Amino acid sequence: MATRAARGYGQYSGTARALERIGDRWALLIVRDLLVGPRRYGDLKASLPRIPTNILSDRLKELQEAGVVRRVPTVRGGYELTRLGLALEPVVVALERWGWSELGEPVEGDTVGADALAISLRAAFRADAAAGLPPTEYVLHVGGVSLSVIVLGATLDIVPIGPGALPQPRRRSAFEPVPGALLELALEPDSLRDLLAGDAARATVLAGDDELLERFVLTFRIGPAAPPTERAPAADAAA
Amino acid sequence: MATRAARGYGQYSGTARALERIGDRWALLIVRDLLVGPRRYGDLKASLPRIPTNILSDRLKELQEAGVVRRVPTVRGGYELTRLGLALEPVVVALERWGWSELGEPVEGDTVGADALAISLRAAFRADAAAGLPPTEYVLHVGGVSLSVIVLGATLDIVPIGPGALPQPRRRSAFEPVPGALLELALEPDSLRDLLAGDAARATVLAGDDELLERFVLTFRIGPAAPPTERAPAADAAA
DNA sequence: CGGGATCCCAAGCGATACTG
DNA sequence: CAGTATCGCTTGGGATCCCG
User: Do B199 and B118 lie in a common domain?
Assistant: First the structure.
């Protein structure tokens, strides 16, 4: 039985209400993955390796009761976000931006999921900078997962490559591969972090030239959550 | 002793890292209140009526360890956000916007806090719409708490009125009260929700005219998180 | 493969009492 | 007022078994 988030905060407040709905452990990570596209129960389980199956089951039930998630009628074990769930994108993106700069080095045992990576890139996407650049496809291989990222003007389309994605009527952008508009990179997770931070990063360029790499850096960027420019000499230091 | 959020998610992901830092119950509500200004232990306790004192104590310790919160050296029991903590504003604002439209009627026992209200207004603030309007002060009385809200061009300055605020060197905006630029409203929490949603709302106008009320509605607005338009998946647009 | 049920332990949470 | 200490309840987590 769903654990019922009956423990409210006793406040008539948007933040409190939101946390009552999606504040439980694991809940927003499930939403994050579903923001990339519909997923099956097993996909989510694989994407969230440490989640116990009963918790995943409970959360999916609660998220359905909250109107955030619904089942995909045509697919056994398929789940997708409702409109209300899709509206959580700004929340997840804001969290992703904040947490990204807090990523130190990967801890032993940390995994990198394709969906998580897709959201990172969505959070890093600079629509204004991209608008002036020619259509480009980026293919990223990061720590075992692969993503195809198509930037067409100010629009962004990310599709994980390989198994896990649930086939959907969702069309790719009207993008026809332009010769010389493909950058393919292979890098480690912490190198991607450095790259998005604008720092020098070790990356293996499998296809494309330096100009395309520059284009990538212009298009995708997550600055530090707390810029060092602060008048008061804060004692705290990010570890 | 701080309970240590050692239970990580095992993912090298911004969202996961963020939730490990500020995903614990009550944590973001504490951050929300501190976003309005430095507060004392007792202020927070009063603002979050249902929080057990040991949990408040634990969370403040954890938030300090996470570099989000620090003590105000000059004030006994005073806490404030660090730069990193201030950087959580987009997260809280996004949550507030999403949760606001999920506020039904107040549940018996729900309280309304001045700080929570201040964040609601910050989330509802339309800088672009406000930029074209003359400087205005709004004084709101909502369910027992009062706020002074000064809009000066595209800037917003909110100060709770009454006890609870910790005196700070923070200056009010360079705002000199203009005669005829003050709207004072008294309303119930659910009426404010309707007002910000753009619906008709029962409000008692204590000072000001209809034109000022119209100005308020233009300046502050939180639309539904899930607009009734289902079909369009809406490519994300930077606001 | 999807997903529900159970058992068990550990950790988180909540209420209250207590101390500086 | 600003916490700490304690205690009992609830939840999460891991493992496992089960059913369709």
Answer: yes
Contact B18 A110 (CB under 8 A): no
What confidence tens digit (pLDDT) does each residue in B106-161 have?
987 899 999 999 999 999 999 999 999 999 999 999 988 999 999 999 999 999 98
Together in a domain, A63 and A165: no
User: Phi and psi at residue A39, in whole multiples of 5°?
Assistant: -140, 155
**Nearest 5°: CA angle at B31, between A25 and A6?**
40
The model's pLDDT over A13-55, given as tens digits with 9 standing for 90+, comes to: 999 999 999 999 999 999 999 999 999 998 999 999 889 999 9
Residue at shortest CA–C1' distance from D3: B57
Domain check: are B129 and B209 in the same one? yes
Domain annotation covers residue B139: yes
Whether B71 is covered by a domain: the verdict is yes
- Residues from chain B that touch A14, judged by Cβ atoms under 8 A, are 95-103, 116, 119-120, 123, 222
Contact A114, A148 (CB under 8 A): no
Name the token pair of A159. 């599709």
Q: Are residue A120 and residue A78 in the same domain, yes or no?
A: no
CATH number for the domain including B119? 3.30.1050.10
**Is A115 found in the same domain as A49?**
no
Say if residue A83 is in the same domain as residue A112.
no
- Residue A235 is classified by DSSP as -
Residues 6+ apart with CB under 8 A from B40: B75, B76, B77, B78, B79, B166
d(CA A213, CA B60): 43
Residues 13-42 of chain A within 7 A of strand D, judged by CB, are: 24-26
A238 and B91: CB-CB below 8 Å?
Answer: no
Domain enclosing residue A20, as ranges: 14-87
Which whole-number Å values give the CA distances from A128 to A94, A236, B87, B238, in the listed order? 18, 33, 22, 8
| Counted domains in chain A | 2
Crossing angle of helices B14-22 and A114-124, rounded to 10°: 90
Nucleotide whose C1' lies closest to the alpha carbon of residue B46: D1
pTM: predicted TM-score of the whole model, two decimal places: 0.90
Measured CA angle at B126 (ends B181, A20), to 5 deg: 115
Say yes or no for a CB contact (<8 Å) between B19 and A28: yes
* Both tokens assigned to B58: 């634990």
- Tell whether B68 and B157 lie within a shared domain: no
CATH number of the domain where residue A22 is located: 1.10.10.10
Query: Which protein residue's Cα is closest to nucleotide C13 at C1'?
Result: B55
Helix (H) or strand (E) holding B212: helix B210-219
Q: Is residue A93 part of a domain?
A: no
